[in-house]
């Protein structure tokens, strides 16, 4: 690596064309300028100046080094401007969360991208462990999970909560467990966990474990899970974010249960990291979406 101080001295010398003027601009002595030049020439291994009396011209090596010095100056100028600007509408932001919450975030994210053409958003749905590790290891700027993790690498802020919803075809009002079994469960990877949480509270006498449920169909695409319910061929269990994001939700009903079950929503960031303005902006948007889900619970 070329010494940055010697390189800047040489660039100033090449610009002024005179040792005395270069020394004055750099607030140095003329011998100091000469010393930096000699050290840089030694580092390069080639003479950088061709002297003619009191003047000089650049050698081919000197011209190449001068070009590089100017390019480095420009890179540093651009870096300083980028740091100073910290534009909230430019750059990339990566967010990880559950599939259902990702569905709820998408409309807000697309609106933000439409208003900020230089902003790039990467939204990935994944299991809880992947969200936690991804944020802690710096692969994601932000994460959303349903409980406060004990990972010391992370800072967590509660931003809302959402209900686990029993979704029925629109017009169906019979929420007896026997009626649900007759209708059939539209299962999905998290569905059995949701059933253990919700049905054990509301049907303690009839529910015998998620593995005993009458399954009508199985889907693993979060956006498609309510579709069979909308067609009247089963029921399913989803966080409210999955229901809110479903395009045909007017054909699906959220059942009223005696014992609702809620999950908190926690916004994760890496501990000690000062977030750029663009990440702070997206964090506020995530918080707004989570708050709307909580408000929907009344």
Number of helices: 11
Profile the largest sheet. 7 strands, mixed
> Fraction of residues in helices?
40-55%
CATH class of the largest domain, named Alpha Beta
Oligomerization state: single chain
What is the molecular shape?
A: rod-shaped
Pick out the low-confidence regions.
Answer: none
Q: Assign the structural class, choosing from mainly alpha, mainly beta, alpha/beta, alpha+beta, or little secondary structure.
A: alpha/beta
Total number of beta strands: 11
- How many structural domains in the coordinates? 3
What is the string of SSEs from the N terminus onward? HHHEEHEHEHEEHEHEHEHEEH
Can you tell me the CATH architecture of the largest domain? 3-Layer(aba) Sandwich
Strand content: 15-25%
CATH topology of the largest domain: D-Maltodextrin-Binding Protein, domain 2
Mean pLDDT: 91
What is the CA-CA span between the terminal residues?
Answer: 63 Å
Write the CATH homologous superfamily of the largest domain.
Answer: Periplasmic binding protein-like II
Radius of gyration: 31 Å
Characterise the protein shown here.
- This protein is an alpha/beta fold and 298 residues long.
- It has 3 domains: 4-85, Winged helix-like DNA-binding domain superfamily/Winged helix DNA-binding domain (Arc Repressor Mutant, subunit A, Orthogonal Bundle), CATH 1.10.10; 94-160 and 263-295, Periplasmic binding protein-like II (D-Maltodextrin-Binding Protein, domain 2); 163-262, 3-Layer(aba) Sandwich (D-Maltodextrin-Binding Protein, domain 2).
- Helix content is 45%, strand content 22%.
- It has 11 helices and 11 strands.
- It has helices spanning 4-16, 19-26, 30-44, 60-85, 99-115, 128-136, 177-183, 191-202, 227-230, 240-244, 277-295; strands at 49-52, 55-58, 90-97, 118-125, 142-145, 154-169, 185-187, 215-218, 236-239, 252-254, 262-270.
- Strands 3, 4, 5, 6, 9, 10 and 11 form a 7-stranded mixed sheet that branches. The chain has a two-stranded antiparallel sheet with strand order 1-2. A two-stranded parallel ribbon has the order 7-8.
- Helix 8 (191-202) links the parallel strand 7 (185-187) and strand 8.
- It is rod-shaped, with a radius of gyration of 31 Å.
- The model has no long low-confidence stretch (mean pLDDT 91).
- This is DNA-binding transcriptional LysR family regulator.
- GO terms for molecular function: DNA-binding transcription factor activity; transcription cis-regulatory region binding.
- It comes from Limimaricola soesokkakensis.
